[in-house]
Amino acid sequence: MVCRGWRSFAVGMAVAVAVALLAACDSGDPGSQATSVSASPITVEVNQSRDQYGKKAILIQLTNTTDTPLTVTGARLDSSLFAEGISWQPSEGGLELPPRQPKSIPADLPAAACGTPHDAFANIEAKLTYSAPGKDPAEENTDASDPFGVLTRNAGELCLAAEAAAVATLALDPGLEVAADGRTAVVRLVITPATPGNGRQSLTIESIDETTLLAQSSTAPWPVNFTLGTVKQELQLTIRPARCDPHAVAEDKVGTLLPLRIKVGERQGLLKIAASPELRGRIYDFVTAACAPGG
């Protein structure tokens, strides 16, 4: 019985080895061979800094995966989230990508495609024009990654802003009223209906978020669930410094973008209202003075 068992085991092993050898030697049918996909010489990733966010722009991060320097002279991203491509062109020359080193380039966002629901996992196709030393320029089509959902978030906010603008104009008055003690101030959010007297579409400010620079006063909290009327209105918002460290004003990028959580029609989301340069300067002066020792 032991001998028969070993003979069966040996036969089975011989068959397995023969099958493996036949598979390895079969070169007549290309479809039977394992195919290898060559990696793109440049990988593309979408990102966004605070500074770019305030400018409605993104960063396209390019990484040279080869061992040879490459020069990029054009980059374009296409996504169903936007009506047009997101393009970058160098002002002169090109962008040199050293081997294995990422570099980021800024690109302005076009209008969002708001007619259909946004897919959080929408494909992003990249088209790059580049060249290697001593070679003619080449074009490369590859997929781009968006690990932080930058395009989805921005497209949603742009569509929300467009729908809100069709209902009303929301803007911060350039004036700033500082309290006598200098510790708080009042900014005014001015709401002007696009079509006075026409209440076909509703707009509600559900809440207002604090920023990296500004916070609400505990004695005068910001309004919640405020529904737009049919005439021009103003919301008085009492503000105080959200932080007083030395870098609060010096490194500010988005602290004067007032985040409104709104609902317009069936769409909900975040709408950021930017302070004008005049108001931004006044807010910086107020925060600096309020945070000063003895202020």
Could you explain how this protein is built, in words?
The protein is α+β, with helices and mostly antiparallel strands. It has 2 domains: 42-148, Sandwich (Immunoglobulin-like); 157-291, Immunoglobulin-like (Sandwich), CATH 2.60.40. It contains 5 helices and 17 strands. It has helices at residues 2-25, 50-54, 150-167, 247-250, 277-291; strands at 42-47, 57-64, 70-79, 86-88, 95-97, 102-108, 124-131, 138-145, 168-172, 177-178, 185-193, 203-208, 214-216, 226-227, 233-241, 257-264, 267-274. The strands form 3 sheets. Strands 1, 2, 3, 4, 5, 6, 7 and 8 form an 8-stranded mixed sheet that branches. The longest helix has 24 residues, at 2-25. The model is unreliable at 1-38 (pLDDT under 50).
Tally of distinct domains? 2
Task: Please state the structural category.
Answer: alpha+beta
Q: Give Rg in angstroms.
A: 29 Å
User: Could you spell the SSE succession in H and E letters?
Assistant: HEHEEEEEEEHEEEEEEEHEEH
Number of helices: 5
Count every beta strand, where a strand is a DSSP E run of 2 or more residues.
Answer: 17
Which architecture name of the largest domain does CATH use?
Sandwich
CATH class descriptor of the largest domain: Mainly Beta
Shape label: globular
Distance between the termini: 98 Å
Percent range of helical residues: 10-25%
Low-pLDDT segments: 1-38
The main β sheet shows up as: 8 strands, mixed
Strand fraction equals 35-45%
CATH topology of the largest domain: Immunoglobulin-like
Average pLDDT rating: 85
